[in-house]
Design goal:
about 55% strand; mainly beta; Neuraminidase; EC 3.1.1.17; eight-stranded mixed sheet
Length: about 350
Amino acid sequence: MLRLPSGKPILVLYFVCCLWFARQIVAENNVDEPLVEKVVVSLEVHVNSENFSMSYKVEPLPESHAELGEGPHWDVERQCLYYVDIHVGKIYRYDYNEDKVYKAQIENETLAGFIIPIEGTTNEFAVGAGRRVIVVTWDGVSPVAKVKKTLFEVQQGDQRFNDNRFNDGKCDPQGRLFAGTMKYVGDEFEHRYGELYKYEKGGKVEVVKSDVGISNGLAWNEKTKKFYYIDTTDYEVKEYDYDFATGKATNPKVVFNLRKNSPKDHLLPDGMTIDTDGNIYVATFNGHTIFKVDPKTGNVLLEIKFPCKQITSAAFGGPNLDILYVTTSSRFGEPDPAGTTYKVTGLGAKGLPMTKMQV
């Protein structure tokens, strides 16, 4: 284990402790195909400073790869993790007790931005599909999920929004859906055509925020009455005062800035979650890292490192809500193990139960 130079608060050592290759030989028509190697990586990380010492493990979920994994949602009742592969319209379910991942293609859909179970059902989910939010029926096992209906559609009647899609979505503790759009063809930094929406039980939809580049991470703290939101193209996390009775967010301020000295080095904040102490966990799409941040001070309490670059989102789960599940991406030719979904144990933190959607 290495130690910090004087004056540095935390050291994170993140090299691979366990690395192995799973080899698959595929035979077709009695002709052997070339050997294919798939890299599977686990980490054991030791953190040490003058006043602090801990270890945590980063381990892959079995057969969990997604080209653009996103939107993790932990279902407390079923003890499973739902997430999506955005650009192919697939939804996933990791069963904690079986230690197995099931996946399904949504019938006649090519996009799936998020997945959230619907309150009062066992097989219905709200899914962001293009500029629509649809209700999907799935038993959690079958390879195909069916569309039951369209709940609502946004940004209609304006050609600027034709190439927009829903990205991240999550429910506040009262079951209101917050979900945002982004331009997925072209430059999202130049064309800020996205918007953040709120859907309330009964069908009321309203715009929370316009002028959004890439709508991303969402989190709430009922104790402090705060709402946290990420627009990736702003390179920061904003905190809002939040009225849980009305669902209104006001008075934004920056609590975590990911800009560096040079614009090419800016980190891209992606998905986000929160623990019971009010610390936020910010995934970075270009940084191999989830930052654990105290939003009261903006201080980084821990850097959680991964063996791939594009870290997309996170959610606490497991029987005690003390396992951090993390989705990643293998876009733009990122090598294995990019796209793997991970579980992180030993963090010494617990998350809050995620809320199902009230329709």
